[in-house]
Design a protein that fits this description.
The protein is built from two helices and 32 strands. It is mainly beta. The model has no long low-confidence stretch (mean pLDDT about 90).
Length: about 350
């Protein structure tokens, strides 16, 4: 590839479009869309014009026989409708900061076994993803079991997510991360958890062999944006900074505080997500510790979303007159109002529990 760093006229990319009536098309792009003309040739009978605007370079060419194409322009004028340029190019408008689209909840029972045909797929930055909620609860939630089999530097970029909620729980191994305005890079070990508030810039730097994390987000389909300008770390430490109504939060398993559950069958460790999200979500680890006189009884919940991942051990899940034997790396979602119970729990049973709202 040519090196244009020392050229007087560096090489720039441009989109080539048919010109149609060149004069009329130029006037449309300048007067209606706010482009500017950079060059035109020849002067006596123009055939080619170069225009730029909105971060885009366009070449209108009278001899080009290709398709007129479609341009999407971000605007603060949400009343603008689709336009057609004189050369046939379709102009679509979208908001500069589009609102987050939350699909309607379609709550249903979802039990996902690791031995089912839910193969690992390669996703962003070469990481392997296993889908824990194939039905997405109507597109409102996504849960992924993510792994990096061979450790070392991770080919990630500084990026951020347009999202309502997102958390990462380190299941096995360790991973080195860095977050916007949260100090120097740090290592997240097994049992640690990070709340990634909306829009916070971050980057995965390095991992151990056999890294596994559980990532949960809402909505299921959301945009990931790369930030090519912000260096991380930023050199600032702002633990109380607000990110779209949420705070960055890092829970370390070494500081876990366990309390007995009201049922007498579990002890629980709250990972601090509720306060960081203003009670949008609650994340706990449950550890089976049945007292001598405690009984595991059927119950229901009234949450929008209730998800469990089996960290270790075994249990028999009874729900909606259905019984399923589950073990480590299995997961399940139980809809609100549906009776469920945990039975025949092994002494080493541990569950990751995520509920919205918190």
């Amino acid at each position: 590839m040519p090196d244009s760093s020392t050229d007087t006229h560096p090489i720039l990319a441009e989109v080539v479009l048919p010109s149609g009536d060149l004069s009329e098309t130029i006037r449309f792009f300048i007067d209606r869309l706010g482009f500017r003309m950079d060059s035109i040739a020849p002067a006596d009978d123009p055939e080619v014009a170069q225009l730029s605007g909105h971060g885009l370079r366009i070449r209108l060419d009278r001899d080009y026989q290709g398709q007129p194409g479609t341009l999407r322009l971000a605007t603060r004028d949400v009343e603008l409708e689709q336009l057609t340029a004189p050369n046939g190019t379709q102009i679509l408008f979208e908001p500069v900061n589009p609102p987050l689209q939350m699909p309607a909840l379609q709550a249903q029972l979802c039990i996902q076994r690791h031995n089912q045909h839910n193969a690992w797929v390669t996703g962003r930055a070469g990481m392997h993803y296993r889908d824990l909620i194939p039905d997405r609860q109507g597109g409102r939630f996504i849960a992924s079991h993510i792994r990096i089999p061979e450790g070392g530097p991770v080919p990630d970029n500084v990026h951020y997510h347009h999202i309502r909620f997102q958390m990462i729980y380190c299941y096995r191994g360790w991973v080195k991360l860095v977050y916007e305005d949260q100090g120097e890079p740090f290592v997240m070990n097994a049992g640690d958890c990070v709340l990634q508030p909306p829009l916070i810039r971050h980057r995965v730097l390095e991992s151990s062999d056999g890294l596994e994390v559980i990532e949960i987000g809402s909505p299921a389909r959301h945009m990931t944006f790369l930030d090519h300008d912000m260096p991380l770390p930023t050199g600032r430490l702002q633990p109380g900074r607000d990110f779209d109504g949420q705070l960055y939060h890092f829970h370390q398993n070494s500081n876990a505080d366990w309390i007995n559950d009201a049922s007498g069958c579990f002890s629980s460790c709250d990972l601090g997500i509720s306060s960081a999200t203003d009670r949008l979500a609650r994340v706990r680890v449950l550890r089976y510790s049945k007292a001598a006189d405690a009984q595991l009884t059927s119950t229901t919940h009234d949450k929008e979303f209730a998800f469990w991942f089996v960290l270790q051990g075994q249990l028999r899940l009874s729900v909606n007159q259905h019984t399923e034997q589950l073990s480590a790396t299995d997961s399940f979602v139980v809809p609100a109002g549906m009776a469920y119970s945990f039975k025949h729990c092994s002494d080493d049973l541990e569950l990751l529990e995520v509920c919205l709202p918190g």
